[in-house]
Specification:
The structure is a homodimer.
Chain A lengths: L19 H25 L7 H11 L5 H8 L3 H14 L2 E5 L7 E5 L1 H25 L1 H15 L16
Antiparallel strand pairs in A: 1-2
Helix pairs in contact in A: 1-5, 3-4, 5-6
The structure holds a DNA duplex.
Chain lengths: 169, 169
DNA sequence: GAGAATAGACAACGTGGTTGTCTAACCATA
DNA sequence: TATGGTTAGACAACCACGTTGTCTATTCTC
């Protein structure tokens, strides 16, 4: 084997069915399946290198986190982290940055029509996948699944990065 | 706000209940809840800086991926990636590396008793959390949840890294 | 007005991966 | 049995995405 292009191998399923570790892997697997599908479909439509965090960032911006500091708070990252995300969104043309006339320190961020279009397409793919799951599980089954997950996660915050076994702090 | 120590904010729940995006966040949230609990509990017991990937790597090693190249294949990363993981596992004393007598190129990796202890403790925490969820959902509910997730994820491979909206390739 | 808090930026760094290149060892086969 | 292909492991350089620490400019509060 060369050094590169690792083959995708399923190291997931059946760590030990019925174990907690297996349950964790199932959850991650389902999440990844959703996200990976969105990514690849949007890539086909010309939106390269999108990340989930881009979508969430734009959602937060739309919801009022229209400057780097506020976005940092909402996304639970440092200001620098948020600034870098904004930088890439600017590069891609998904947001624009303009001086806040009311506060010379602030630079307001605004999602562009292109950004909204990406969000719309991403959401549409996810919704389609959800409907697909709904057909597979039955709509009652899907509702139950979501209800159960909601009960489990409560209203705990979720950090989007750091998928790993560890949270950084 | 200073530049550091971002506050944890819930940007998850209620992206839009009933949407695909919300479902994705629920899945991630549940996964993260499991993993974060394991991390912090193991940290309390003196196992610092553990990652899920460490656990999975040790599992793979135990299952026969006892050299860097093979581990790389199983974990779907490059040899260098696997080598680095092994390096940290060596540092922590979770594995040892010894020359393979049968093949001068190979260096065999073996999980130490300490490594097994960490795996055992991690699995125990996950199992406990799963039982807790079982009490919350009822055992039929938990079984159904797992059954549904299994149906959804199928036997697709899961890459452990890259939690984001994008897979790296 | 003075002092504290806030917004944004810069540089340096850490982590966990990547690619690309290299050597040494093994293996198959002509 | 010599040779050419494949494999294992390592080194260096890089990248993405976050971090910390420090800085200036501006605003807010009293």
């Amino acid at each position: 084997m060369s050094n590169h292009s690792p083959t995708l191998v399923r190291m997931t399923a059946r760590v030990a069915p019925g174990s907690g570790a297996d349950l964790a892997l199932l959850l991650l697997g389902c999440y990844r399946r959703l996200i990976d599908t969105v990514i690849s479909e949007l890539e086909e439509r010309g939106h390269e290198d999108l990340r989930a965090s881009h979508h969430y960032a734009m959602t937060a911006i739309d919801a009022g986190a229209d400057n780097a500091s506020e976005l940092a708070r909402r996304m639970a990252v440092t200001k620098q982290g948020a600034a870098r995300t904004i930088e890439t969104l600017l590069d891609r043309g998904y947001v624009v940055r303009e001086q806040d006339p009311a506060d010379a320190r602030r630079k307001k961020i605004r999602v562009t029509p292109l950004g909204h279009e990406v969000m719309r397409q991403g959401a549409a793919v996810l919704d389609r996948l959800r409907r697909q799951w709904g057909r597979q599980l039955g709509s009652a089954g899907l509702a139950r699944l979501e209800h159960q997950l909601t009960a489990l996660v409560g209203d705990a915050p979720v950090r989007l990065e750091a998928p790993g076994w560890v949270a950084h702090d």
